[in-house]
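Long-time lurker. I teach an intro course on protein structure, and each term I like to show students one example going from raw sequence to a predicted 3D structure in token notation. This year I'd like something fresh instead of my usual example. Would anyone be willing to generate the tokens for the chain below so I can use it in lecture? Attribution to the forum is fine with me.
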Amino acid sequence: MRFIHTADLHLDSPFEGLKKIPNDLAKKLYNASMEAFDEIVKDAVKQQVDFILIAGDLFDNPHPSVAAQLFLQKEFVKLQQARIPVYLCLGNHDFLDLKKTALVYPKNVYVFPNQATTKRFFVDGQSVSLTSFSYGKQWTKGQTDFFPLKSSERWHIGMLHGELSSNYEEARYAPFSLSQLKSKNYDYWALGHIHKREVLSNDPLIIYPGNIQGKNIKESGIKGYYLVEEKDGQLVPSFCPLRGIQWIETTFAFAEEETFEKIKDKIENKLKNIKQTVRFAQAILIRIILKAPLELEPSLRDRVIKGVLLGQIQNDLQNDHSIFLYSLIMKSAHQPKNGFWDEATEKKADELTFQRGELYHLADNLVKYRFIDEHFAKSSTADIIKSKSAAYLEEEMDGE
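-- Reply from a regular --
Happy to contribute to a lecture. Here you go:
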């Protein structure tokens, strides 16, 4: 048996945090998620897989663009022609009440209903059971209690779009615990929802493949999917990278005596070195954190803060569509006067406040609005709130 496990395609969703993008790069960004999924489909046909699992969030919302829908239809037809079944569930972004709305896909595509359901089939004469459910609304309580125990079938796979959480009562996205999943005695859990690739357990295999294309700086690094194969009576997962658009953050320190031109030249050389070392990328989006000396010449500081340095570097590299420096952030080497926001304070603040669940709680009824809930669901939100909170507190303390 051989199958592909992917999730969180988020077709047609925008990239976040980018401004003044060159037209050629903008086209690459628009097509990035679609090209990533097309690469998966081509690999599926080449590898002659027995089926594909898509663990939720094919689209970024329940009403995707016509272009995204047509694209997905064409990809599913390619798989149908190759006689490759697709089993998918809907997640918290592309949720639908399937009793009221019917999805029309080729016959090789099976969409799990809104309640936990087990699909049974055979692969190479071996019985396979696959249990999953689709979100009927944006939020849902834990569903693992409705997943049956493994019975006499050779393989049982669970597909779940949800979050690992100890706060089982208040979590909103089909929360589960590892003990709950392991109690089912399944052979493989195909997870979705978390955009970072992670193996939660090796026995049994419980895996988040991550999303197929990072959409902000917090989703950096190589993206891909898992190819799972039966070897000597065991399921063995292999991560397969995709040639997508990669996000990278790096730091650059410079000395007090260095001129504007020297700094610019060194940054451009650093960008060229990054381009040579990064693998599996058709384009690279880069943010550089500048570590400036405390006694930086005021006019040089102004040229950095006002975007002159960034603009000149972007202009110098405008004909290279494989790399784009989208942000320069300058941080001084000095410590705040009050020194209260130290490492210990930051760690304690992380534990008590700057966790997504705690921020949800503090937001109270505001998260009933979809746009606010989606904002909190982004992996970068907690970091942004923490950074702005620290800056605000330091300013208030300095003013006393």
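Some talking points for your students: Residues 2-242 form a domain with the Purple Acid Phosphatase; chain A, domain 2 fold (CATH 3.60.21.10). The longest helix spans residues 23-47.
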